[in-house]
Design a protein that fits this description.
Blueprint: H1 2-37, E1 73-83, E2 87-97, E3 102-114, E4 118-121, E5 124-133, E6 141-150, E7 162-173, E8 176-187, E9 195-207, E10 210-220, E11 229-239, E12 244-253, E13 261-271
Antiparallel strand pairs: 1-2, 1-13, 2-3, 3-4, 3-5, 5-6, 6-7, 7-8, 8-9, 9-10, 10-11, 11-12, 12-13
């Protein structure tokens, strides 16, 4: 009986440690969260996706400074169910390790049943992420990102192309990895405004193959002069195998904007798969 309770006990201990770390980390994240929450708000329109991280190299939409190793590629198929307004978003994403510190990213979003009848692609987004400062004992790792969107989407979902960049900061403390992003993007048409994103997230290693995720994500969209969306996102990620990751989450709009909440699902693969060589030692019988 005691053996059967061990996994449950370990999970409870992990959750307690997670709460403790959150309590300790509030002195770092609280100023960031307060800044995001008290930014001036305005009404929002369609939520353009833009470039997104590929699991496990990010939280949900918050980028990590980590990248796939040189020559490796991460592929992801994501789905979102959005409520109020009701529609579906599907994402096809990839991240390729050009070097151990530089990656090429591609995001292809598709919208289904917008306004109950409009389907089509958003603009395809591409970008480069470069980690130019490695993590030190007391210092974070830092990366910059350069990105652009190709004017390839349906008119209702397109910005006629865009370009931008941003700064990514990550730091590990024990089982917790924290991330902070500042991202800027300029649209290809003068009728839209510049986009600004502030994001902060953490992933907590609750077990050897599971991480608990939390993220706060605030955006000033292309159709607004002020910040029009702030979401709290929570969930978990399971490493099903050496090459397979599954992420499940939910997002809630703190400011009661559109969409008010959404469900998130992601399945990602790391390729090529390297088989582990296990050497067996045999003792000769005398």
């Amino acid at each position: 009986m005691r053996t059967a309770l061990n996994p449950v006990s370990r999970l409870i201990d992990s959750l307690r440690l997670f709460c403790y770390v959150l309590e300790m980390k509030k002195y770092f994240f609280l100023p960031v969260i307060l800044v995001i929450l008290f930014l001036p708000k305005s009404s929002s329109g369609f939520d353009v996706t833009g470039l997104q991280p590929v699991s496990p190299y990010g939280v949900f939409s918050t980028f990590s400074t980590e990248s796939p190793q040189k020559g490796k590629i991460a592929l992801s198929a994501d789905g979102e169910i959005l409520f109020d307004p009701d529609f579906y978003r599907f994402l096809f994403k990839s991240a390729y390790g050009i070097t151990d510190t530089i990656e090429l990213d591609v995001t292809i979003p598709y919208i289904y049943k917008w306004a109950d009848q409009v389907d089509g692609f958003e603009d395809i987004a591409v970008g480069f992420k470069h980690r130019f400062v490695g993590e030190k004992k007391y210092g974070p790792s830092i990366a910059y990102i350069l990105n652009a969107s190709i004017p390839s989407g349906r008119d209702e979902f397109s910005t006629e192309g865009s370009f931008g960049g941003g700064l990514i900061v990550s730091k590990r403390v024990g089982p917790v990895m924290g991330h902070f992003n500042v991202l800027y993007e300029k649209p290809g048409t003068g009728s839209l405004h510049d986009e600004l994103i502030l994001a902060a997230g953490i992933d907590f290693a609750a077990a050897h193959n599971m991480k608990l995720l939390a993220e706060i994500y605030s955006k000033k969209g292309f159709d607004s002069k002020k910040f029009d969306s702030t979401e709290l996102r929570v969930g978990y990620r399971i490493k099903a195998s050496d090459i397979l990751y599954t992420t499940v989450g939910a997002a809630f709009d703190i400011e009661t904007r559109d969409p008010q909440y959404r469900l998130l699902l992601s399945v990602s693969f790391l390729l090529p798969h390297e088989k582990k060589i296990i050497k067996k030692l045999y003792e000769e019988e005398e």
